[in-house]
Amino acid sequence: MNFWRKLTERLTGRGDPFERICADCPPGVRVDDADFAMALIALGAKMAKADGVVTKDEVAAFKQVFQTPPEAGEAIARAFNLAKQTTLGFDGYARRLARRFRANPAVLEDVMDALFHIARADGAVTEAELEYLKTVAEIFGFTEGEFRRLRIAHIGAAPDDPYVILGVDPDIDDAGLKRAYRRVAAHNHPDSLLARGAPPEMQRVAVAKMALINEAYAKIRAGRAAGLA
Question: Which of 127, 154, 163, 219 could form a cystine bridge with 116, CB 3.0-4.6 A?
Answer without folding.
Answer: 154
